[in-house]
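On clarity, I found the account of how folds are encoded harder to follow than it need be. For illustration, here is how one protein appears when written out as sequence plus structure tokens.
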Amino acid sequence: MNPIDSLLAALGDDPSDEVAWQALADALEEAGEPLRAELLRLTRRLPALKRGARGRAAAERRVQRLLLDGVRPCWPQIAN
């Protein structure tokens, strides 16, 4: 199992582990997927930013642009 798969499995067990989310973003970057890492970091940061907070609108626009450009989000998936 590669590091990304290991982190995704751990996050499936405990999605509140912020250190694992950051490690996943780092692993994506190291695997040559910097845009997915950026998208992950932004989506983890956005809920903490209140509406109207400095930087929120720019972060939202960047998330939208990344998604429109076809960057795939990275999070645990459960298969049945």
In short: Residues 18-30 form the longest helix (13 residues). DSSP finds four helices and no strands in the chain. Residues 46 and 53 are 10 Å apart (CA to CA).
